[in-house]
Amino acid sequence: RARVMAEPTTAAMADSPRLVREAAERGDAAALQVQLAAGAAADVADKSGYTPLIVAAWGGHTAVVRLLLAHGADASAKTKSGTCALALAAWNGHAAVATLQVQNGAEVEAKGADGSTALLEAASNGHADVANVLLGSGASLAARDSNGNTALSLAAYGGHTSTVNLLLDHGADTSATNNHGETPMSRCSSEACKRSLANHGRWRRRGALVVWKELSPAA
């Protein structure tokens, strides 16, 4: 006997945005699929502009992100404050989610309220795997946050050696200064990062002091 599917009630449809969001927050792809199959929209934002995709990207819920994108969710969605889903995935180190987003057209150079791009967010927290995804998708090494810091400067400040090495391998500028005249070397917080910068730039250590100075090309 053929199975007859009941039409969703008005009350059920009115409640669907909440159920979709809750499924996205939990990373519950099965529950989300039920809602989407019943006709729920994949891209309804809350009062702060958070869509289910933004919530899922923050949580690193890859299966949910994939499902939402397949149902038309905007990969470049932003909150009302300007935070984008890709930047949140980058900040939290969710490389698989970031990969899905860029594959589905997320704007790699989108900037948040503080001017940060996804690459800057990844570099700041030392997520080299995410940074690699973004660089492979054309992310600019010249991008700067509101303080003038580049990705290399942020990674050096955090002492994230793997990320520093990755950025250097992609040609990051070791001499770029921020709004306070600081270079990646002067902001560097670890000896390992300083060695990496020294090997790629025109830097030398003077005596036993932890003092680094950029030399002129003739030095």
From TrEMBL:
Highest rank taxon of the organism: Eukaryota
Record carries keyword Repeat: yes
Keywords: ANK repeat, Repeat
Stored SMART domains: ANK
PROSITE patterns with a match to the protein in the record: ANK_REP_REGION, ANK_REPEAT
ANK repeats, residue ranges: 48-80, 114-146, 147-179
Nucleus found in the keyword field: no
Protein known as: Uncharacterized protein
Species, as recorded: Cafeteria roenbergensis
